[in-house]
Amino acid sequence: MYQVKDMSIESEISANKNTSLKNSNKSALEYDLFDSIVGYDDIKKLFQLSFGSQRPIHILLVGPPASAKTLFMLGCMKLDRSYFTLGTHSTKSGMVDYLFEKRPRYLIIDEIEHMSIRDQTALLSLMETGIIAETKHMKTRNTQLKTWVFATSNQTNHMLTPLLSRFMVLHFKQYKYENFLDISIHMLAQEGITKDVANEVAAQVWQKMKSKDIRDCIKIAHLAKTKNDVNWIVETLLKYNNPSYSTKK
Questions:
Q1: Is residue 202 within 8 Å of residue 185, measured between CB atoms?
Q2: What is the pLDDT of residues 6-54, one digit of tens each?
Q3: Are residues 229 and 193 in contact, defined by beta-carbon separation less than 8 angstroms?
Q4: What whole-number distance in Å separates Cα of residue 20 and Cα of residue 90?
Q5: Are strands 148-153 and 59-62 parallel, antiparallel or unpaired?
Q6: Which of 25, 62, 88, 160 has the most crowded Cβ, counting Cβ within 10 A?
Q7: Contact (CB, 8 A) for 174 and 205
Q8: Which stretches of the chain are DSSP H helices?
Q9: Contact at 8 Å (CB) between 75 and 187?
């Protein structure tokens, strides 16, 4: 499958902060956090119920890439006192230190299955008791938090069983083309892209690039003004990123 080198999800999070609720005095429940996601109304409602719960309800979205999981995490990032981390970067970025220092209400984890066992154990303690404890250089520190955990995973076989049991687990299926087309048109319309160009972008990304990543559509649409532009951009990307493509022409 062809893949465009994507900007880091941290960059998307940074852009997403521009429309966050962090400086708003209104309740997060007054906002549609997931307005960029087509469908999944039942899952959206589950998240809203979790936000309103008096006790933390943790949600894990499991499924293949390009199945809207990350879009839900981006929506959750609009919540006040939220913190995002990648499972692959959790230890590197000092997740435990951040929990002690910032005391987030919402912890958002993408690709949680890649977290180290050490961090999974710390997370389990947080979710079970609200207690975070750490021993460094013969010194122990601990604190108690009230934190909701929302996470994604492509699979669960690398997760600790007790940790998995603390989540409400929802399994996603990969997009079919009809879903992909609807979601692409919806998201590109929010970017100011006309429907005919959006249709062409979705078709080219799915059929020529063999990609099911909505973010590929967004990047190409930002460069294209016409359907001819879309075709030229895709041809160019394939030419220089897929060595076997030029030999097939």
A1: yes
A2: 444 445 545 554 444 444 434 444 448 888 788 889 999 999 999 999 9
A3: no
A4: 22
A5: parallel
A6: 62
A7: no
A8: 9-16, 41-52, 69-76, 95-102, 117-129, 161-165, 177-190, 195-207, 214-223, 227-241, 243-248
A9: no
The H-or-E segment that residue 61 falls in is: strand 59-62
Neighbouring C-beta atoms of residue 133, cutoff 10 Å: 14
* Euclidean distance between CA atoms 68 and 157, whole angstroms: 21
DSSP string covering 67-109: SSHHHHHHHHTTSTTEEEEEGGGTTTTTHHHHHHHH--SEEEE
3-state secondary structure of 177: helix
Give the predicted TM-score (pTM) of the model: 0.74
Residues contacting residue 82 through CB under 8 Å, at least 6 positions apart? 76, 104, 105, 106, 107, 108
CA distances from 230 to 135, 189, 195 (A): 55, 16, 13
Q: Cα(86)–Cα(98) distance, rounded to whole angstroms?
A: 14
Q: How far apart are CA 118 and CA 115, in angstroms?
A: 8
**Cβ pair 234, 205 in contact under 8 A:** yes
pLDDT digits (tens, 9 = 90+) for 49-91: 999 999 999 999 999 876 789 889 989 999 999 999 888 877 7
